[in-house]
Amino acid sequence: LLAAFGADDNDSMSAPVQVGNTLEFAAGHAMRRAAQYLGGLQQRDGHWCAELTADTTLESDYILFQLWLYPPQDGQWEPPTRPLIDKAVRAILDRQLPDGGFNIYSKGPSEVSASVKAYFALKLAGMAVDDARIERLRDRILELGGIQASNSYVKVNLSLFDLYPRQFCPSIPPEVVLLPFDFLYQMSAWTRAIVVTLSIVHAANPCRPVPEGLNLDEIWLPGASPAWSFQKDRRWLTWHNIFLTADWILKWWERRGSKSIRQRAIEKAKEWMIERLRHSDGLGAIYPPMMYSVMALDVLGYAPDDPLRVEALRQFNNLMVDDGERFFFQPCFSPVWDTGIGAYALGQTDPRHPALRRAADWLLAKEVRRKGDWAVKRPNTEPSGWAFEYGNEFYPDIDDTAMVTLALSEAQSSDAAAQEACQKRALDWLLAMQSSDGGWAAFDADNNWEFLNKVPFADHNAMLDPTCPDITGRVLEALAAHHIDRNHRAVRRGVEWLVRNQRPDGSWYGRWGVAYIYGTCFALRGLAASGEGDREVHVLRAGEWLRSVQNADGGWGESCESYDKGLFVPAESTPSQTAWALMGLIAGGDENSLSVQHGIEYLLETQRADGSWDEELATGTGFPKVFYLDYHLYKDYFPLLALTSFVKTRDRSNG
Questions:
Q1: Rounded to 5 degrees, what are φ and ψ at 175?
Q2: Which of 413, 510, 612, 617 could be disulfide-bonded to 360 (CB atoms 3.0-4.6 Å)?
Q3: CA 232, 233, 236, 240 torsion: positive or negative?
Q4: pLDDT tens digits along 149-202
């Protein structure tokens, strides 16, 4: 057994052990190999940042964006970025499914919006309509409902080029920035950044040219209305119908409304956007608003060589990976997230690891000290926290802040006094960002106007930022790591929120990771850190649920399809999801069951010689049902955390 896991005579734990301890021994050895591998990935300045990848929609949107940046001349389209467009085409085609379509997560089914985006991008790039790959894609799109079945943002993008009727796209008016009750800030942070920039673009009502002869007539489903998403409910008084009526009024307003009010709205939207551009690595530091901000600057009259526009386009292009062999776009960068989890995992494994001081110094330098959008709901709170990306000062998020404070509980920086002051500010900020229901969300507090999900452009399934179990659990764990325990009212309320929001089957929903395994893991860890007993009914039920969904190979796996069905959908085992299940079980008091043993054995058997793991499936969530993420370090630092939890728990039991 020891030889099978790579133990040798030089291993510090290679002394004879009893048979009952061989699993702990092998887990300890695998843990150290994993820690060595992870430590070797740290960059010289102290941070980690793995690649973050998604589906083909990013490459498809890139090709569309080039059409915006470089319009056809005399009907012919020869943009200066043609070599990059050709690489994007190859990257898209490499992921075409056998049925002709494109999916939004690995091994998932064809999805209509991703397929329509790919079709337009490929045809725009010059692929012939009688190419076999295009023919298969066209047939699959029609089977899925045609271009009419794609989501609002696909239609909005195409309408910029008169390829989808503007009247059948949802209105996105700049006047939203003038509405009372802080209406703009009742939307999620990411939606806010998209809506403001798109509203500027749409107020200009652009109709950019396309290459001569380009249209999408062949992917319109015959007999289906282009206005199918604007069909009213049978019951007349519903939020859906109210917003459809409002959309009709807005379209009238665009034609006949006050020009002075519209101009005032555009000016305020412009000021809002530019202020946030100047304090981030692109607007919101994520792909969609970064792209739309360049478009907005264009319609506002900024010249291509204007420094603001040049920088906005440069930040967008920074998301491109082109290493000679691979070409793709990242939706954003994840350095703070990767560094927080990486440092915490190493600190749990070896408190004296040399990487920890460098990581702590880097993280302290990244603390946000500027008031951002979050301050609209919490105006009297001192700024603190961390964003997900390198620079995104208006949008620190609660999840990253909790993860960084966990890391700082394990890692000591070069300046102890500065770290202590920083930790206090961050903890105070986390406590202030608790929502009124007792849970924590991602970017804002009390972002829960449910009726906004019925807005016509809300089909990206991320209009709101409600409280969720995974973030609530992580915040509770972070608070406990800094000695804020069950005696604190915020902790009690957080625990009560988790207990109230457990699903009938014993699981918890995971908003930011796939899906119920993720939510259950971090809910259980938060409860355990807050002093919840492992004999409580809700803890026992959660453990039973986790054991009930274990795969025959000893690991755990869950499909992104869980979000579509609203219940757990099994998938092949992955290292990250196996680690989450193990971490949840151990937090719930289960360290000896066969489920735990088999899960540890799965991680041992699948670990590579260099200490890493392989993972093909997407286990990160951007927008449920719409956009998923492959975090390329999830497969490494979460198994390390699981192995460390197992070894330390067994040591306590045996000691």
A1: -60, -10
A2: 413
A3: negative
A4: 999 899 999 999 999 998 888 888 899 999 999 999 999 999 999 999 999 999
Using pLDDT thresholds of 50, 70 and 90, give the confidence band for residue 15: very low
Angle 449-453-455 from CA coordinates, rounded to 5°:
110
Torsion (CA) 218, 223, 228, 234 in degrees, nearest 10: -170
Q: What confidence score (pLDDT) does residue 2 get? A: 40
Pairing status of strand 52-53 against strand 320-322 = unpaired
Residue 150 CA to residue 520 CA, distance in Å, equals 32
Residue-wise pLDDT for 362-409, tens only, equals 999 999 999 999 999 999 999 999 999 999 999 999 999 999 999 999
- What residue type is assigned to position 291 of the chain? M
Express each pLDDT in 97-135 by its tens digit: 999 999 999 999 999 999 999 999 999 999 999 999 999
Strand, coil or helix: what is 397?
strand
Mean per-residue pLDDT, 204-215: 93
The pLDDT of residue 4? 42
Contact between 593 and 547 under an 8 Å Cβ cutoff? The reply is yes
Residue of 211, 357, 197, 328 lying closest to 270 (CA atoms)? 197
Q: What gap in Å lies between CA 253 and CA 256, rounded to an integer?
A: 5
Considering the chain, what percentage of its residues have pLDDT values greater than 70? 93
On whether the CB atoms of residues 576 and 556 are closer than 8 A, the answer is no
Rounded Cα gap, residues 301 and 296, in angstroms: 9
- State how far the Cα of 512 lies from the Cα of 530, in Å rounded to an integer: 22
pLDDT score, position 436: 97
Q: How far is Cα of residue 585 from the mean position of the Cα atoms in its chain?
A: 25
Please compute the mean of the pLDDT values over residues 548-576 and round it to a whole number. 98
- The Cα–Cα gap between 185 and 47 comes to 32
| Whole-angstrom distance, CA of residue 477 vs CA of residue 533 | 15
Strand partners, 73: 76
CB 316 within 8 A of CB 362: no
229, pLDDT greater than 60:
no
Q: At what angle do helices 259-277 and 287-299 cross, to 10 degrees?
A: 130
Report whether 333 contacts 238 (CB < 8 A): no
Q: Can you tell me the distance from the alpha carbon of 644 to that of 655, in angstroms, rounded to the nearest whole number?
A: 16
Two structure tokens written together for 16? 């004879």
What span, in angstroms and rounded, lies between the C-alpha atoms of 344 and 603?
A: 19
Tokens representing residue 60 in the block: 């498809």
Distances (CA, A) of 292 to 153, 161, 251: 12, 14, 21
The Cα 521–Cα 513 span in angstroms is 10
CB within 8 Å of 505: residues ≥ 6 apart: 541, 545, 567, 568
Rounded to whole angstroms, the Cα distance separating 584 from 518 reads 9
pLDDT(40) > 50: yes
d(CA 643, CA 603): 8
pTM of this structure: 0.93
Catalytic residues: 399
Report how far apart, in Å, the C-alpha atoms of 79 and of each of 24, 67, 89, 592 are: 60, 8, 14, 62
Task: Using CA atoms of 502, 583, 537, 433 in order, give the dihedral in degrees to the nearest 10.
Answer: -40
Q: Report CA 262 to chain centroid distance, whole Å.
A: 34
Return the structure tokens found at 448: 């829960």
pLDDT digits (tens, 9 = 90+) for 253-285: 777 778 899 999 999 999 999 999 988 999 999
Residue 627 pairs in a beta bridge with 623
